[in-house]
């Protein structure tokens, strides 16, 4: 190996993969790129900072005078690259960065691998950049050489880009090819430019930055933010070059205005009252209003369920009685009363009673193991105990602990509430009298116990690293403070119907109960069967007409599992407790079209969810989720709450947009703290940002009216500006909302429960047969999080009792093969942990190892630990679901197809019942809306029946929305040459795979084809032309007939009843395009024959076929059925079989030259984008995809049926060429208007795009190139190929690429709209796409409606087109080139306005006036030319 290559490869081993924060989800599958550009000039202050840094001498700091080459002054480029690297580190937390770059001294690009540590002084990063660049320059090699060596012996499907960010100096040589070759896999590219400046300008360098970025990933605000932060960073480090880069402030002035102000007022004194007082007030105002609706288990699952309603008056009556009993029993203010509970109305009464007594309630779930219950009791030290009758009896071990270790003053042994408000408490041992009987007369009297904001009302538990639960004391302030705002923001009121679904010992149960009680609304309580049986929960919610629910994502998944009932009543679903995914949201939207999903963030210590991110109902905005990433963000702080993201290296520095920091929650509603004062001091901290802020007025102690403070002031500790240190990592998005990125410690959440991995490992290590252990969170094959414990058994005699006689092998990581050997030990370990941990903390998998894999630091090598995939396969969808899907699709069809039979058969084709391409597009939108699936717009052509669509929709839904729809493989038709109108079998053939079809068609070619006649180059030619009535065909006809005497005659195949009608059609089409000449007919140089591309002999009949074959010298096959939605088999006859017919015609009689007009659609695949990039990025002789390419790279990857037909046709011609056929394949890109007259084709994607943008009022920012060439240039090349083909030894049938030079961009086409006065504004592509989809779904009146499949599904891929090498075409035309200039775009727009295709510009004073066109034909005309 070349020593230089060896050094480069050595430096690039084990490359990291940078993950920049994106604004939109990264597209799955193939690389997609919609390029956008952002231009910025650095400010004078930033330029001066660069100058100051360039003059900085670290020797001044150290006193060292040694000025060798290593300390040469850095250039502006080095300083900017160092600052950019620091930003990347701050955005990602990565310390190992790879950046593609360039060099002023090396012709080849550089791959720079830089390390950045938060403690590094900025100046050391600058010096490191210089050193790394110097090393890379010394070993510079062609990029393809480096990638080839790095990817050697690797599977192509597993190779990843070397880098995703690039940083160039715009003046460096040979950058352009490298830029093109890596653009598809680069997220962000920065170009540094230094404009010319006069001597009168500032001495500071004038620097401009041009940022190219993938607008599918980033919003413009994100890019602007990066540039602003780069400037801030440079100004900060210029003042202190030795500052550690991890803590330099990056906050910009505009961000400071958007992000939370850490010293702002949060209405600390805005006390909303105690929940007990609000509840009692509601009960007194409306005592008969339903409060709790309890579902009662039916005798069997098939029997109807009974519901029992408890009024507000009844709940108040019962809770007052119990509260008086607790007070009488000696429970003191803020003492803990433990409730042994189950999900029921009894729990609501018990909790309200404890709070009315001024005490603190805590809940024990009987499902916890006895050892865990004892731990909670030990921590809580309750003085009261309330046991709900339905919760069952307390276990003997717990009862013994209560008797011996606790001082419980009052116990209520069996609480049961009746709908009348009557309450029973059970009898004490040895007594027959109910314990509550003596207080039954106090039901109408609320206890006179005053409560204030700082009264402690709740004790909740969170796990601790030592294995001992931490008790969290909750204040009354938070129990009510947020409800008025939530009511206003989310429409919650007394008519709302809530659910009780949270775990009863999980603090969100408080939210389930207190929210409806605050609003005077209903709380519906399900049975255990409603929650536990798949599908039942949705039925229960629908039957109960629930409007609001609080869920964890796990409960949401349970709700949607096998659900068959829609829940139209559900208006709000609040999620908290774990990561909420897009998949979770889509599942719920499929059940409840009217639900607003709200992702909330909060912890036990914040008492309530404190931030929110709202997702509008799919019925209002079906496109919103498409723009969201897979994980929903935490959102913005609720009223009077701030989520502060703080620098991890210096907590006095607030994070700027995009950088990862630790989340602190600032709020007046935080919990009081832990029972452990030391733990409280660590996590509940005073706001250091406000240390010097002026004192705020305490309006609770000193009311504004100068009156006396209320009783609540006695239970108020004054204004305390505190923050809770969450331990969660996150970042601000450009709009100020927060997204979480992980945990700062090992604490994790699974199914809404917070888990300490350390606690699990502590208990696991205490098992006598466990030597070493570590517990991790892993994702199974369904991407669900599960706990996996790895352990090394302690060898010895005791272990033998737990080992089975199973032979175990071992791989290099020390995995014990065959967990069966230690099955009994694993069972024993599981039982051991069940006694120590709640069920949700017991790992799902236990993996025994011979030894723990260690990394070089001596720590457990966690990535090396194996993961045995034991996830169960997803069960097949039930018949009932499929039936439901078919019924829904049938209703949609009936609404769209007015003449369809009733009922519509499941096996009838949509198109046979009157459907067409526009209705097909509308149908897909209806399916997307009805089922909330991302159905591809070509689906209805793949599956045109109700049964087929239902199967495809169910496949999409059951794939957890993680996989795109794939057309099932099917055998190709055996009726290879079937033509329209011929009798078809009763069972239609399966859809054809175009690659397979080619192999079946090749045998129809002749074994050999003769040479052209010897006089071909000298004689006057007769040309047989198809497609002459189309747009391009009209110009080809004109060009051919202008070549007198070389072209003697042109015979045009036209579809018409007779030759006279055919001539009229041909003349009309050419006249509309301004290229008709009556002299052609009079001179006899033009003849029309009638026929059809898709039938035998082109429909000429045997005699006509023979006559044309004898007369013609050239077959110029330009005709085709152009359709961007039809599948391959629907276009096959007109496009593929017609090509075979053209080949047959060329070899009937004397041999003829064949010219075939194809399309770049034949190479519209990622393979050719990559091939183009590799050729243009290196030192290849080609400027893009060679004209000699064999097209094998697109054998199975073309998406459009039209492109597939062109591919098969070209491959047939290639094979015929190998057998001797002479001619050319003309392969143009987009064919646009005449460069002289501006006559253009209105039925074209590009002009529909222009018109659709004008109708929408928005144009997308797309900097991708588009290969559009004027029609007269394409016609010139086509006609030249027919009359003066390239001489041999060129391939017998070679390709001619027609490409614009230079290539225009989509922005070149769309940006002039606003300049010429069309009321349009530019926006990012993702926003434009969403607005377009909304517009079409609302109005179904947009020029792009028939092509939405292309715009919404394929445009990001299709607009990244391969570069084309056009050596053959250049040789044919003598080097003549063409493109679409800015001036020509204006001429096209002027023509389209005059033709009535576009409206007149509406702006009164446009920047430019449309060009004035000369005399000529102005008439909108389409492209069809079959």
Automatic annotation (TrEMBL):
EC numbers for this chain: 1.2.1.31, 1.2.1.95
Alphabetized InterPro entries for the sequence: AA_adenyl_dom, ACP-like_sf, AMP-bd_C_sf, AMP-binding_CS, AMP-dep_synth/lig_dom, ANL_N_sf, FAR_NAD-bd, Lys2
Carrier domain sequence ranges: 880-957
GO molecular function: L-aminoadipate-semialdehyde dehydrogenase [NAD(P)+] activity; phosphopantetheine binding
Protein's pathway: Amino-acid biosynthesis; L-lysine biosynthesis via AAA pathway; L-lysine from L-alpha-aminoadipate (fungal route): step 1/3
Any one biological process term the GO annotation gives: lysine biosynthetic process
Catalytic class of the enzyme: oxidoreductase
Catalytic reaction(s) noted: (S)-2-amino-6-oxohexanoate + NAD(+) + H2O = L-2-aminoadipate + NADH + 2 H(+); (S)-2-amino-6-oxohexanoate + AMP + diphosphate + NADP(+) = L-2-aminoadipate + ATP + NADPH + H(+); (S)-2-amino-6-oxohexanoate + NADP(+) + H2O = L-2-aminoadipate + NADPH + 2 H(+)
Keywords associated with the record: Amino-acid biosynthesis, Lysine biosynthesis, NADP, Oxidoreductase, Phosphopantetheine, Phosphoprotein
Cofactors named for this entry: pantetheine 4'-phosphate
Its biological purpose: Catalyzes the activation of alpha-aminoadipate by ATP-dependent adenylation and the reduction of activated alpha-aminoadipate by NADPH. The activated alpha-aminoadipate is bound to the phosphopantheinyl group of the enzyme itself before it is reduced to (S)-2-amino-6-oxohexanoate.
Entry similarity comment: Belongs to the ATP-dependent AMP-binding enzyme family.
Name recorded for this polypeptide: Alpha-aminoadipate reductase
């Amino acid at each position: 190996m070349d020593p230089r290559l060896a050094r480069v490869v050595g430096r690039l081993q084990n490359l990291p993969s940078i993950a920049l924060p994106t604004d939109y989800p990264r597209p799955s599958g193939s690389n997609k790129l919609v390029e956008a550009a952002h231009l910025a000039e650095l400010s004078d202050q930033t330029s001066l900072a660069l100058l100051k840094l360039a003059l900085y001498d670290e020797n001044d700091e150290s006193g060292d005078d040694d000025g060798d080459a290593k300390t040469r002054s850095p250039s502006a480029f080095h300083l900017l690259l160092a600052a950019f690297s620091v930003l990347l580190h701050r955005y990602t937390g990565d310390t190992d960065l790879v950046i593609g770059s360039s060099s002023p001294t090396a012709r080849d690009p550089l791959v720079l691998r830089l390390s950045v540590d938060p403690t590094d002084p900025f100046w050391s990063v600058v010096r490191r950049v210089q050193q790394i660049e110097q090393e890379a320059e010394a070993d510079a090699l062609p990029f393809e050489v480096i990638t080839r060596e790095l990817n050697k012996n690797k599977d192509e499907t597993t190779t990843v880009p070397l880098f995703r960010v690039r940083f160039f100096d715009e003046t460096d040589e040979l950058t352009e090819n490298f830029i093109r070759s890596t653009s598809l896999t680069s997220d962000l590219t920065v170009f540094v430019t230094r404009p010319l400046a006069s001597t009168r300008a500032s001495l500071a360098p004038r620097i401009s930055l041009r940022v190219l970025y993938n607008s599918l990933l980033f919003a413009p605000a994100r890019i602007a933010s990066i540039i602003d932060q780069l400037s801030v960073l440079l100004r900060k480090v210029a003042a202190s070059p030795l500052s550690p880069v991890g803590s330099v402030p990056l906050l910009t002035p505009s961000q400071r205005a958007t992000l939370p102000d850490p010293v702002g007022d949060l209405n600390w004194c805005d006390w909303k009252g105690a929940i007990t007082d609000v509840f009692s007030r509601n009960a007194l105002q409306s005592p008969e209003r339903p409060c709790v609706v309890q579902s009662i288990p039916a005798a069997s699952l098939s029997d109807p369920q009974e519901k029992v309603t408890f009024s507000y008056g009844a709940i108040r009556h019962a809770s007052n009685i119990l509260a008086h009993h607790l007070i009488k029993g000696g429970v003191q203010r803020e003492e803990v009363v433990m409730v042994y509970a189950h999900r029921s109305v009894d729990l609501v009464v018990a909790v309200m009673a404890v709070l009315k007594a001024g005490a603190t309630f805590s809940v024990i779930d009987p499902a916890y193991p006895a050892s865990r219950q004892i731990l909670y009791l030990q921590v809580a030290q309750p003085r009261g105990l309330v046991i709900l009758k339905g919760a069952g009896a307390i276990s003997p071990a717990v009862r013994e602990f209560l008797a011996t270790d606790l001082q419980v003053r009052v116990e209520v042994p069996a609480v049961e509430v009746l709908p009348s408000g009557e309450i029973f408490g059970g009898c004490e041992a040895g007594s027959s009298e109910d314990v509550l009987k003596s207080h039954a007369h106090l039901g109408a009297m609320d206890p006179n116990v005053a409560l204030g904001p700082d009264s402690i009302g709740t004790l909740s538990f969170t796990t601790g690293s030592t294995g001992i639960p931490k008790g969290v004391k909750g204040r009354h302030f938070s129990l009510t403070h947020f409800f008025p705002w939530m009511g206003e923001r989310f429409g919650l009121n007394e008519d709302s119907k809530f659910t009780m679904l949270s775990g009863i010992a999980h603090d969100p149960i408080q939210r389930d109960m207190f929210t409806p009680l605050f609003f005077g609304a209903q709380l519906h309580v399900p049975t255990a069967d409603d929650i536990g049986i798949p599908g039942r929960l949705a039925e229960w919610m629908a039957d109960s007409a629930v409007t609001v629910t609080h869920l964890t994502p796990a409960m949401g998944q349970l709700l949607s599992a096998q659900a068959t009932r829609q829940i139209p009543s559900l208006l709000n679903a609040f999620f908290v407790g774990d990561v909420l995914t897009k998949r979770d949201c889509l599942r719920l939207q499929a059940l409840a079209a009217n639900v607003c999903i709200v992702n909330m963030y909060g912890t036990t210590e914040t008492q309530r969810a404190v931030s929110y991110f709202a997702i509008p109902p799919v019925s209002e905005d079906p496109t919103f989720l498409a723009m969201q990433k897979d994980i929903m963000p935490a959102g913005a702080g609720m009223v009077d709450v701030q989520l502060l993201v703080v620098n991890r290296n210096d907590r006095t520095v607030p994070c700027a947009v995009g950088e990862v920091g630790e989340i602190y929650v600032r709020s007046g509603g935080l919990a009081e703290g832990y029972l452990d004062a030391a733990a409280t001091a660590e996590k509940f901290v005073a706001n250091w940002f406000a240390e010097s802020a002026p004192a705020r007025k305490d309006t609770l102690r000193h009311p504004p009216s100068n009156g006396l403070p209320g009783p609540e002031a006695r239970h108020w500790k004054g204004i305390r500006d505190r923050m809770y240190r969450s331990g969660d990592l996150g970042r601000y998005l450009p709009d100020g909302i927060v997204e979480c990125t992980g945990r700062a410690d090992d604490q994790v959440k699974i199914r809404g429960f917070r888990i300490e991995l350390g606690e699990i490992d502590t208990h696991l290590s205490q098992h006598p047969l466990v030597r070493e252990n570590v517990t991790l969170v892993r994702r199974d094959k369904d991407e669900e999080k599960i706990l996996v414990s790895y352990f090394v058994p302690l060898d010895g005699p005791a272990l033998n009792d737990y080992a089975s006689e199973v032979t175990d092998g071992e791989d290099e990581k020390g995995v014990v093969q065959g967990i069966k050997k230690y099955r009994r030990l694993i069972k024993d370990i599981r039982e051991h942990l069940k006694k120590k941990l709640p069920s949700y903390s017991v790992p799902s998998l236990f993996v025994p190892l011979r030894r723990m894999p260690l990394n070089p630091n001596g720590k457990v090598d966690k990535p090396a630990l194996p993961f045995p995939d034991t996830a169960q396969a997803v069960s097949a969808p039930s018949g009932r679901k499929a039936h439901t899907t078919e019924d829904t699709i049938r209703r949609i069809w009936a609404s769209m197809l007015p003449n369809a039979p009733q009922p519509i058969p499941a096996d009838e084709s949509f198109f046979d019942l009157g459907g067409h391409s526009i209705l097909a597009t509308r149908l897909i939108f209806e399916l997307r809306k009805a089922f909330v699936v991302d159905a591809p717009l070509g689906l209805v052509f793949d599956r045109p029946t109700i049964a087929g669509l239902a199967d495809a929709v169910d496949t999409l839904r059951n794939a957890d929305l993680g996989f795109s729809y794939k057309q099932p493989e099917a055998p190709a038709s055996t009726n290879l040459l079937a033509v329209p109108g011929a009798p078809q079998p009763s069972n239609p053939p399966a859809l054809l795979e175009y690659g397979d079809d080619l192999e079946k068609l090749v045998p129809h070619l002749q074994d050999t084809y003769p040479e052209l006649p010897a006089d071909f180059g000298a004689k006057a030619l007769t040309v047989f032309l198809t497609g002459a009535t189309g747009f391009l065909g009209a110009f080809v006809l004109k060009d051919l007939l202008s070549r007198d005497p070389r072209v003697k005659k042109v015979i045009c195949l036209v579809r018409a009843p007779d030759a006279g009608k055919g001539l009229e059609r041909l003349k009309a089409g050419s006249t509309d395009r301004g290229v008709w000449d009556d002299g052609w007919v009079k001179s006899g140089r033009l003849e029309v024959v009638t026929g059809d591309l898709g039938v035998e002999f082109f429909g000429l009949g045997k005699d006509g076929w023979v006559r044309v074959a004898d007369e013609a010298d050239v077959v110029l096959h330009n005709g085709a059925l152009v359709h961007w939605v039809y599948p391959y088999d629907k276009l096959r006859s007109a496009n593929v079989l017609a090509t075979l017919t053209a080949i047959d015609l060329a070899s009937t009689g004397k041999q003829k030259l064949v010219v075939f007009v194809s399309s770049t659609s034949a190479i519209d695949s990622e393979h050719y984008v990559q091939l183009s990039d590799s050729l243009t990025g290196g030192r290849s002789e080609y400027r893009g995809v060679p004209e000699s390419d064999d097209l094998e790279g697109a054998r199975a990857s073309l998406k459009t049926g039209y492109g597939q037909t062109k591919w098969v046709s070209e491959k047939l011609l290639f094979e015929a060429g190998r057998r001797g056929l002479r001619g050319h394949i003309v392969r143009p890109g987009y064919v646009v208007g005449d460069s002289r007259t501006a006559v253009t084709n209105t039925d074209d994607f590009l002009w529909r795009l222009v018109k659709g943008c004008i109708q929408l009022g928005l144009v997308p920012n797309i900097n991708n190139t588009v290969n559009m060439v004027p029609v007269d240039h394409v016609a010139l090349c086509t006609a030249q190929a027919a009359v003066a083909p390239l001489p041999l030894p060129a391939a017998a049938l070679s390709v001619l690429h027609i490409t614009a030079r230079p290539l225009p961009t989509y922005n070149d086409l769309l940006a002039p709209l606003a300049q010429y006065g069309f009321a349009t504004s530019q926006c990012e592509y993702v926003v434009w796409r969403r607005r377009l989809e909304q517009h079409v779904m609302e109005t179904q009146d947009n020029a792009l409606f028939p092509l939405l499949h292309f715009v919404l599904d394929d445009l990001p891929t299709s607009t990244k087109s391969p570069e084309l090498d056009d050596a053959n075409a250049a040789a044919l035309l003598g080097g003549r080139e063409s493109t679409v200039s800015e001036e020509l775009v204006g001429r096209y727009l002027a023509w389209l306005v005059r033709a009535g295709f576009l409206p007149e510009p509406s702006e009164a004073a446009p920047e430019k006036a449309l060009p004035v066109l000369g005399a000529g034909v102005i008439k909108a005309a389409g492209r069809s030319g079959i």
